[in-house]
Amino acid sequence: MTPSSKRAAAALMLLLGAGLLAGCKEQVESKQSGYRGTGMVQLSTAKQTAALAAANQVPEAQPPASQEGKRAKEVYKNVTVLGDLSEEEFNRTMLAINEWVAPEAGCDFCHNTDKMEDDSKYQKVVARRMFQMTQHINEKWKAHVGEVGVTCYTCHRGNGVPAYSWVQNPGPAEAQGMAATGTGKNKASWTAGITALYDDPFTPLLTDPSKIRLQTTSALAPAMSKSIQDTEMTYSLMFHLSQSLGVNCDFCHNSRSFSNWSESNPQRVTAWHGLRMVSEVNKDYISLLAAVFPDNRKGPLGDPAKANCQTCHQGANKPLLGASMLKDYRPALATETTPK
């Protein structure tokens, strides 16, 4: 090898080395989420932060509308939920919902455009109930959503059907007799963070959040009613929370003592309310629509797609990174309306 070739080879090796080092040195940022000295921090890279910001862009609000003039129910037929809005505010809200839920299909997604008051499309019946659900969340569940609130866009993000939901999971076919397990366990599932824990923690625990438990607070407690299976089911749900919010366990818990509320972060209280909120909206709003949804919108066991933590959060510890769209749509989506 000539001297010039050696120099070229050395330069190439230096460039390759620098490239490899650059690839290995993506800076990790830490953000304290708990008490000082406890190591309760969340880790992220600039690349992850940028991807999260890009995925949580908020559409601009529709131009303000007059609150004066006739009410929507005086102008249009069969307006049972948002009828007390002014005509202009009603039309503005409909334009926003169209953009949030069905930007390509337009009004046709829910309405028979030859007869707008017609209820023959199931999407319109579902949408009406979802307006009430949104209003209920914003008025009654401030312990979880605060003044930021939610809108249709929080879950839909331009999709007619939210990208993340769940139905009862019957699991794969199992052996019968003594070999049968039927627990949905021991097969890696995305729901449980690619572990072999239960693949459907939602059906038992989002139906009754009081069953979410890991351990008793004293050894050999006489009233101990929680089994290892209960604990594993709860762990499966906790994996789901962690993935849905893009955080690790100590975002809510002090890992020195997971069960101790006095050592936990305030976020744990917010999550406690959130689990109960999701349970209520699934039971009182979505499941009651089972007879309205067509078969192709139901799961293999006939239940409609329901909400879990990922439906709203989608990888962020605060949906849409904490941006409030509700402030531009009060009172339409902020106050409960009784159908008239």
TrEMBL record:
Any Pfam family the entry gives: CytoC_RC
Positions annotated to bind heme 3: M238, C249, C252, H253
Domain of life: Bacteria
Signal peptide segment: 1-22
Entry's Gene Ontology molecular function annotations: electron transfer activity; heme binding; iron ion binding
Keyword tags: Electron transport, Heme, Iron, Metal-binding, Photosynthesis, Signal, Transport
InterPro entries reported for this sequence: Multihaem_cyt_PRC_cyt_su-like, Multihaem_cyt_sf, Photosyn_RC_cyt_c-su
Keyword Iron carried by entry: yes
Binding residue positions for heme 2: M130, C152, C155, H156
Annotated function: The reaction center of purple bacteria contains a tightly bound cytochrome molecule which re-reduces the photo oxidized primary electron donor.
Protein name: Photosynthetic reaction center cytochrome c subunit
Species name: Prosthecodimorpha staleyi
